Here is the input.
Amino acid sequence: MPTTTGKKIAIVTGSALGLGYELASQLIANGWLVAGVDFNAERQAELTAQWPDDSYRAFVKESVADIATLGHIDLLINNAGQPSFKVPTAYEAADVDKCLKGLKGMILWTVETLKACGEQNVKIAQIM
Here is the structure.
């Protein structure tokens, strides 16, 4: 099914800053329709405490479903995450929790995107 805009569609998580922003910018410059997903760091801390896991899962599912109404999702770039740049021996439980939340988010975005695309003709890049 062609998109409503005639453009290829990409989802870029972590698109507000850094690498995600640059990737989204380049895709847009090359004619893609980009659905950028990002959370403000302060707001994310509030939401992490406020949203149970099922709420985030519902957010991802609803977001991908909304994006898919525009047409076939051609690309998912999973860039969002909260990495820890400490040496591994300095990791604490909170650092591991951040990494696991990022991994969980990547898996949820991937699963929902594959479902929306019927597991066909979608490219997925896992960055963070």
Remarks:
- The two ends are 30 Å apart (CA to CA).
